[in-house]
């Protein structure tokens, strides 16, 4: 008799008993049993360098974060309707990282939940429902946030754009319509236009939601002045500006702690998730006093798990690690080294059409000489890199962008290894066929 392997048994079970659209990474899925810093380790003890995981921000199984969670777990975990020091200590530490204008926090458990609350705040405060959002943006899996996530409603299985969502073209300086000096202003004009169209039918917007660097859009860095102009148009109409920092926050940008700071704007509401708890479900909606006051009608916002002592202890420990280990600075130094090395690779291998990003939030796209996106090559590259012990992910509207967003403890040595392996794969026949075009 041929018995199934342990991996085959898991795959069969998943197919039958777990959500039918839940996918697995890679053609031959990985069976990971441990995490350690920048590495994931499989059942055979093989170590993979992880350039994908933007959740385990201060390193997989960071011992300080693990200890903080274990310690508090053994003392108390309950909801936030009792007095407790930990939530105050964490809130204080987090507020120190935000501009002084943003001074009220709501604790939730996922990025989706954070954006869901942010949307509800914008709608409750303005009395309007219409939202502006960026093409190819993703803001989460709940019903309302799916409706502002064109990555989903315009993608596979999507039902198309809801009537009260207005999509602004992806402000992509490489592949988009506006590439010049004033590209930012030109792209922002679509926000103004959408608002003017609504005025004609006597409607108005609740606000705008966007990531400051658009991750699912393919690690897009919008041109300068884009956000300044969009915020201006939105605020002139009385709308609320929401910055989704779920992927980009907590020092990953290197130069700044939050991505919106790169563009010199201050949002009304900032949402955070993924890295906040280093893998523990912790997310936050931060806003100005004005927003918080305007949202505080008679209805209580209560969240059973949000801000509990364990989550708060873990969150505070993550901030402490970023501080103690100088990780924002690390993201800056390693990120700029990696970006320069990728640009050098681009000279050698013209299949790399563009290299972009900030800090340890980088991307490069693959195309032929006529700029045709090469999705198969991106998939090939990710799978071959896995064979060589490096995990990478692909994304973007054309599935041709390789994303690099590792735990920010990623070192110069790790960056050198990544480049060394990329060089090996780029020299393979399947990739080389395009260099001769
Ligand atoms: N916003 C952004 C920008 C995201 O990338 C994600 C998750 N990929 C979310 C929100 C949703 O977060 P979660 O999966 O924690 O609900």
TrEMBL record:
Domain of life per record: Bacteria
Family: Belongs to the class-III pyridoxal-phosphate-dependent aminotransferase family.
Protein name: 4-aminobutyrate aminotransferase
Portion of the full sequence shown: 573 to 1009 of 1009
């Amino acid at each position: 008799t041929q018995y199934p392997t342990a991996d085959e048994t898991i795959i069969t079970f998943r197919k039958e008993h777990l959500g039918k659209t839940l996918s697995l990474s890679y053609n031959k899925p990985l069976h990971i049993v441990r995490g350690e810093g920048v590495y994931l380790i499989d059942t055979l003890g093989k170590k993979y360098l992880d350039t994908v995981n933007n959740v385990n921000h201060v390193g997989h199984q960071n011992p300080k974060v693990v200890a903080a969670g274990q310690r508090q777990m053994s003392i108390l975990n309950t909801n936030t309707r009792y007095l407790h020091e930990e939530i105050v200590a964490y809130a204080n530490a987090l507020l120190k990282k935000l501009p002084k204008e943003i001074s009220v926090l709501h604790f939730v458990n996922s990025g989706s939940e954070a954006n869901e609350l942010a949307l509800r705040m914008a709608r409750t405060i303005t009395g309007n429902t219409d939202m502006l959002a960026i093409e190819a943006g993703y803001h989460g899996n709940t019903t309302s946030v799916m409706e502002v996530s064109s990555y989903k409603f315009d993608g596979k299985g999507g039902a198309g754009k809801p009537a009260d969502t207005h999509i602004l073209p992806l402000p992509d300086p490489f592949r988009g319509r506006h590439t010049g000096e004033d590209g930012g202003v030109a792209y922002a004009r679509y926000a103004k236009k959408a608002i003017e169209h609504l005025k004609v039918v006597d409607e108005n917007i609740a606000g705008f939601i966007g990531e400051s660097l658009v991750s699912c859009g393919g690690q897009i860095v919008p041109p300068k002045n884009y956000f300044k102009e969009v915020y201006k148009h939105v605020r002139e109409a009385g709308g609320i500006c929401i910055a989704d920092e779920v992927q980009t926050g907590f020092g990953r940008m290197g130069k700044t702690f939050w991505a919106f700071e790169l563009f010199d704007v201050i949002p009304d509401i900032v949402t955070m998730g993924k890295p906040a708890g280093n893998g523990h479900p912790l997310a936050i909606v931060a806003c100005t006093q004005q927003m918080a006051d305007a949202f505080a009608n008679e209805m209580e916002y209560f969240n059973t798990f949000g801000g509990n002592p364990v989550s708060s202890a873990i969150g505070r420990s993550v901030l402490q690690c970023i501080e103690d280990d100088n990780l924002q600075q690390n993201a800056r130094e390693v990120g700029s080294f990696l970006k320069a090395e990728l640009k050098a690779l681009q000279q050698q291998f013209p299949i790399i059409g563009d290299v972009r990003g900030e800090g340890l939030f980088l991307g490069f796209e693959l195309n032929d000489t006529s700029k045709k996106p090469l999705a198969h090559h991106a998939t090939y590259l990710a799978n071959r890199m896995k064979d060589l012990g490096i995990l990478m992910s692909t994304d973007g509207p054309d599935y041709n962008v390789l994303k690099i967003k590792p735990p920010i403890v990623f070192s110069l040595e790790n960056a050198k290894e990544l480049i060394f392996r990329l060089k090996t794969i780029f020299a393979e026949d399947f990739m080389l066929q395009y260099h001769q075009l």
